[in-house]
Amino acid sequence: MTALIELQAISKNFSGIHALREVDFDLNAGEVHALVGENGAGKSTLMRVLGGEMRPSGGRQLIEGEEIRLAGPTDAIRRGIAVIHQEMALAPDLTVAENIFLGQLPAQINWSRLNERARKLIERLGFAISPRAEVSSLPVAHQQVVEIAKALSRDVKAIVFDEPTAVLSTGDATRLLQIIRDLRADGVGVVYISHRLDEIYAISDRITVMKDGRRVGTVTPAEVPVQDLIPMMVGRPLSQLFGDKPETTIGDEILRVDGMCLPNGVRDVSFAIRAGEVVGLGGLVGSGRTEVARAIFGADPVSAGKMVLKGRPYSPRTPKQAVRRGVGLVPEDRKGQGVVLDMAIAKNATMANSARVTTAGFFRPDAEASLVQELIRSLRIKLGSMHDPVSSLSGGNQQKVVLAKWFNANPDLVILDEPTRGVDVGAKTEIYSLIHRLASEGKAVIVISSEHAELFGLCDRVLVMGEGELRGELQPQDFEEEKLLALSMMRQSQPGTVRPQTARETHA
Amino acid sequence: MTEATATNPEPASPARRFDFMKAFHTYGTFVIFLILLVVAAAQSDAFLSERNAMNVLRQMSGIGIMAIGMLFVILTRGIDLSVGSIAALGSVSSAILLREYPLPVGIAMVVGIGAACGLLSGIFIAFFRLPAFVITLAMMTAARGFALILSNGQPITLGAPGKALSSFGTSFTFGFPNPALLMFALFLIALVVLNFSRFGRLVKAIGSNEEAVRLSGISVPWYVLSVYVISGALAAVAGVIITSRSGVGSASVGEGNELDVIAAVVIGGASLMGGRGGVVNTFLGVMILGVIGNIMNLAGVPGYHQQVYLGVIIVIAVVLQNGSTLLRR
């Protein structure tokens, strides 16, 4: 049988660096072929070649046995290859239907027919999203659905999913996996890139492991169990991922939130956190976790409720006031909110606190360099030069730069929103140990994550949110995914009338 | 049309090509400037004369001073269309104020007026988050109007304290025209501020990623406000300098200058999308603009034709600047 797509000995050089070295890859119709490896292993580059966005420096590309040379993404789409990227490529101000049919709009548009077709496509995916809604008004998960619908609107033979579930909650991710199974049943070839190995084992027919721009091997899930796959990627077994939690002494209360309500639907959230504690904030995406974090950091307004920070009333109206009072935030969108990508690593690292390296508003280059050098060593950031832009780093190291910024500012409360999203396994472990270090230095730490294993591995207790409410709290003996989901999805009270009991019991 | 016409990959020397492009990206403006100098020298013997060089420097001093402020504004991803009009207001008000007040006081007041114009624009842009293009367009109209009202539409000859200004503007120190020396000094200050101060660094960072800066606990609006104040103040200084050269305050000073200033900054490689641009390259951008005008004057190109050539040259310069981005892939 001829493979649907075959890549033979693909190489790609960037300015002398070998991003891909003679990689072979093939995809059959009606199979899910997973692609795994640490960030920087070359997965995305390989898929860019496959999708016609990049020309390889060497190698051959065959579609249904015929050698071709893709002229660009448009050419790839015409041949039935669609790539759904990590960073979504939708036009935010256009409607769902307009986005789906963008590039294939007829000169004379019959809007009601177009909207109807869009609605049908989305329904086929098992979602109900209005085709007239503007994309910017949709949650990320729904935007992803629109991307997939866009791909399906054309006659598609192969779809590449580049980390589709990184931004999705567990429920949405499960539905996406079902969509992928349906696509496979329809005879579509699917390439699936993910850092979530449980998903990969759930749906893949074959798995190709990449490392440092080379193909390590192609295996089936049956012949290589998870614990053997991770060493293929990094050379480190799964159990060592979280490391040992160091002994920390729980100190005084750092932050107390009482009856917080936000304009965006978060209602009556109350909890407290002490020095040295790592508290998880779990629940589905859209349950209000990020909103609570941003409100504590003064990035978004609060409509009601009180906060007390280190014994004094706390109501930040800007992040600046929050930072002054000793609060730091590692935001969920690393590239959009965490770092200034084009700016040097050193300059990013000292952005939140440059008091120690400036005199009268002017930097002392030597002082700054030695401070940053110390941060790089302490956080084990892998880089060429501290004067290189942050964009030159891998995802994990970019995230460490964000962490360095806060290690340098030395706040009492650090909030980390999805700290390991899109970060490879190796860097994840290091970020976990940095989070432990923050706690052992006596800081209060709040971790938001959609990966439940991460919350359970890291946190002393996990607060669970659902639909804008705090629905309960899990202690370590209750750290089970089912319990978390049950809490998150079960409504316990009428909105706004009764406060979640668990939150008040804590430290009462 | 698809990209079917694109060239085949050149696996032979990606490393060498990249280095060349990178170098060009950094020194592109300088290369363009050198090429222009060579062309100019070949075109006309008069070009290389000291007298001509000093003329170009003096002519460009107003544009140059405004370009410094514009660079800061553009780095934050903003734009200031009001610089030419504020220069006119500076010109007229200096002529009026220097009849009554001694030179330092009068100049300080004029600079204050320019800063106040920038402050007003800046408040709307930074705190009410209105588009800089529209707000500074409004300021461009209003400031010009004020200049016309104050001057009654007539040129105003400099009074007694103003004579000192005139003599400053028309004389030389160390062989350089004073206005050019002032421009050099301001460029030098800008160089230090942009590269070594917290302010300069944050201005650049805001243009690259405002949200990341805000979430680092920095009050972005104050920085945005500041760049418009700086731009307004420097535009007023430029107005005073132009007045010092001519000896007359006029509401028609700086007409259309905002476009020359933006062109100079862009030729200097700054990105209108913010975050990218430098002081040295902006200075070279100003000089390129000056030399182009000068060559065409020396070669006897008629004024109307000059405008067309200038447009073409700006496009060529910007295409060369962005060559590495265009050719990446």
Give a structural overview.
The complex is a heterodimer of chains A (508) and B (329). Chain A is of the alpha/beta class and 508 residues long. Chain A is 33% helix and 24% strand. In chain A, strand 21 (461-466) and strand 22 (469-474) form a beta hairpin. The longest helix of chain A has 16 residues, at 170-185. Chain B has a single domain (47-322), classed as ABC transporter involved in vitamin B12 uptake, BtuC. Chain B has helices at 14-43, 50-75, 83-100, 103-127, 132-151, 160-170, 178-196, 198-208, 210-214, 220-246, 257-267, 279-298, 303-321, 323-327; strands at 156-157, 172-173, 176-177, 248-249. Helices cover 75% and strands 2% of the residues of chain B. Chain B is an all-alpha fold and 329 residues long. The chains are: A alpha/beta (508), B mainly alpha (329).
Q: Biggest interface and which pair forms it? A: A-B, 42 and 34 residues
Oligomer: heterodimer
Counting helices, strands and paired strands, the structural category of chain A is alpha/beta
CATH topology name of chain B: ABC transporter involved in vitamin B12 uptake, BtuC
General shape of chain A: globular
Count of discrete alpha- or pi-helical segments spanning 4 or more residues of chain A: 18
SSE map:
The complex is a heterodimer of chains A (508) and B (329).
Chain A: E1 5-14, E2 17-27, E3 32-36, H1 43-50, E4 58-63, E5 66-68, H2 73-78, E6 81-84, H3 96-100, H4 111-124, H5 140-152, E7 158-162, H6 170-185, E8 189-193, H7 197-203, E9 206-211, E10 214-219, H8 226-233, E11 253-261, E12 269-274, E13 278-283, H9 289-296, E14 304-309, E15 312-313, H10 319-324, E16 327-330, H11 334-338, H12 345-349, E17 358-359, E18 362-363, H13 365-379, H14 395-409, E19 413-417, H15 425-440, E20 444-448, H16 452-458, E21 461-466, E22 469-474, H17 481-489, H18 501-505
Parallel strand pairs in A: 3-8, 3-9, 6-7, 7-8, 13-20, 13-21, 16-19, 19-20
Antiparallel strand pairs in A: 1-2, 1-4, 4-5, 9-10, 11-12, 11-14, 14-15, 17-18, 21-22
Chain B: H1 14-43, H2 50-75, H3 83-100, H4 103-127, H5 132-151, E1 156-157, H6 160-170, E2 172-173, E3 176-177, H7 178-196, H8 198-208, H9 210-214, H10 220-246, E4 248-249, H11 257-267, H12 279-298, H13 303-321, H14 323-327
Antiparallel strand pairs in B: 1-4, 2-3
Helix pairs in contact in B: 1-12, 2-7, 2-10, 2-11, 2-12, 3-4, 3-5, 3-10, 4-5, 4-10, 6-10, 7-8, 8-10, 11-12
